[in-house]
Amino acid sequence: MAKQKKAQWPWHLLTGLILVLGVLAIWYSTSLISYEWRWNRVPQYFAYHAEEAQRAADYGRVESVSRQGDDAVVTLLGDSGEQQQITVASDSLQLSDGDDVAEGDVIGVTRHWAAGPLLWGLWTTLWISVAAGVFGLLIGLVTGLCRLSANPTLRHLSTVYVELVRGTPLLVQIFIFYFFIGTVLNLSREFAGVAALALFTGAYVGEIVRAGVQSIVRGQDEAARSLGLSAAQSMRHVILPQAFKRVLPPLAGQFISLVKDTSLVSVIAITELTKSGREAITTSFSTFEIWFCVAALYLVINLPLSQIANRLERRLAQSD
User: Fold this and answer.
1) Which of 264, 291, 145, 292 is nearest to 213 (CA)?
2) Sign of the CA dihedral 187, 177, 249, 163?
3) 69 and 193, same domain (yes or no)
4) Pair 155, 147: CB distance under 8 Å
5) Range scoring the smallest mean pLDDT among 18-32, 58-72, 174-188
6) pLDDT of residue 224
7) Which of 133-137, 176-180, 203-207 is predicted with the least confidence, judged by mean pLDDT?
8) CA–CA gap between residue 65 and residue 86 (Å, rounded)
C-alpha cells in the first residue's frame, strides 16, 4: 500500500502565523517607544524631482513669454542683439515681458526626475560587489591551485596569504589598505575598497577551490594522465569542471557575503548603500523606515543570486 502523503497546509498556516506574529511584535515594540512611522518621507530618497536653475547668459531684456502647457518659453534679447530662448516651469517664472535682465539672473527652473541617494548607493554597492567578486574569483582560483602546487614556495606563500587574511578582520584590512598602502601608492578610495574586498574574498575562494579540487578522487587525474593529458590539461579539462559543481554552493554563499561586506567600505567615505541610508536618516529622521528599505535593497540583490545559484546547481547535477 502506497504511503499516504501528509497534508502540508497546517505547516503553511503555522509559517504564516509566525510571520504575522513577527510583524505584530515589531509594531508593538515601536509603539512602546512612541515611534511615529513616516513612510511618506521615504520615496524622495529613491527618486525625486530635481530643480535646475536657468540663468540669463547676457545683459538684455525679456522680449516675449509664451506658455506651452506647464512650461514657459522666455525669449531674451541681449545687448549684442542675440536672442536666447529659455524654457522653464511656468510656476517658477520670475520675469515678465519687458523686464531688464543681467548676466546670471535666474529666469526660472526646469524640473526632471533624478535618482535619490538610496538608488545611487545601490548602484555603488552593485559595481563594487561585481568588481571585487570578479577579481576575488581570479585571485582565489590562483591561490587555490597554488595551495595544491608541488612547488614549496608557491604553496607556502599562498598559505601565508590565506591565513593572514582569514585571521584578521576585514575592517582592519580596509583601514590598512586605504590609509597605508593607498597613501603610499596614491590610490583612490574606490580602488582601495575594491582591492581590499577582492583580497579578502580571494582568500576564502582559494580555500573553497582547494577543498573542491581535493574532493575529486585521485583516479580521475590518473585516468586523464594515462590518456596523454599533461598535468595542466588534466586540471583544466577534467578536475576543475567536476570541482566547480561541488564548490558552487559555497561560492554563491561567499559572493552573497561579499555584497553585505561592501557596507564596511563606508568607513573610508565611499557612499554605498549603508552610508547612503545613514545620510538619509540624518535628513528625514525616519530611522526605522530607512533601515528597512536598506535591508530590502540588500535582499533585492542577494535573493536573485541565491535563486540563480540554486538553479545552476540543479542543472549541473542533472548533467552528471
Assistant:
1) 145
2) positive
3) no
4) yes
5) 58-72
6) 74
7) 176-180
8) 10
End-to-end CA distance of the chain: 33
Is 183 a member of any domain?
A: yes
**8 Å CB contact between 231 and 151:** no
pTM score, two decimals? 0.82
Return the closest-CA partner of residue 231 out of 247, 243, 218, 242.
218
H or E, element range at 66: strand 60-68
Which helix (H) or strand (E) covers residue 110, if one does?
strand 106-115
Helical H segments across the chain, by residue range: 9-32, 117-147, 152-166, 170-175, 182-185, 189-214, 218-226, 231-234, 240-261, 273-284, 287-318
One domain, residues 67 and 138: no
Q: Which three cell numbers, joined as nine digits, stand for 167?
A: 585571521
Q: Rank 71-85, 95-109, 291-305 by mean pLDDT and report only the highest.
A: 291-305
Q: What is the CATH number of the domain that holds 143?
A: 1.10.3720.10
**Rounded Cα gap, residues 209 and 246, in angstroms:** 9
The reported pLDDT for the residue numbered 241 is: 78
Distance CA 193, CA 292 (A): 25
Q: Are residues 109 and 126 in the same domain?
A: no
Asked whether residue 16 is assigned to any structural domain, the reply reads no
